[in-house]
């Protein structure tokens, strides 16, 4: 089923966690099992100098627990 999704990534620290980036996307826009997003499309990370300007995050989706090559 196509639906909007929100993903948040956190850095776990002693005593809590810190949000690193977040992203929202609609599964109906996916074309294949991979979604690659540049830094400027990631909430929080787009202005975080710890991320290089050419940084990307890649999501790999599958319908089961099998490993995806790459």
From TrEMBL:
Highest taxon in the source lineage: Eukaryota
One Gene Ontology MF term: protein tyrosine phosphatase activity
PANTHER family with a match to the protein in the record: TENSIN, TENSIN-2
GO cellular component: focal adhesion
Name of the protein this chain belongs to: TNS2 protein
Organism: Chloropsis hardwickii
Domain C2 tensin-type, first and last residues per copy: 1-64
């Amino acid at each position: 089923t196509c639906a909007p999704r929100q993903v948040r990534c956190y850095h776990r620290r002693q005593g809590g966690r810190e949000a690193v980036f977040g992203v929202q996307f609609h599964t109906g826009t996916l074309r294949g099992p991979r979604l690659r997003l540049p830094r400027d499309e990631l909430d929080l990370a787009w202005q975080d100098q710890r991320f290089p300007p050419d940084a990307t995050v890649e999501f790999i989706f599958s319908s089961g627990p099998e490993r995806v090559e790459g």
